Amino acid sequence: YCLSNFHNYIDHHCEQLKSLERHTFSLTSEFTFYTYQFSKLREQMSENFLPFFVREIQKILHFSRIFLFLRVIF
To answer: Residue 24: which domain range?
Structure first.
């Protein structure tokens, strides 16, 4: 009985680790995507870059706020 409990415990933590890994991977790919977008933007814009950039940052911040909100819910 103890052993099966222990196995369940380990399985549970393995699942948690896997989901954490998936989560980290998606965050990493998101970050890579944003970095890529940013470099593309920097190439495209020279003069009117700043206001545009500020808007983009606001969007990203808004997105991360939503993300944090979701994290709190689940």
So the answer is: 2-73
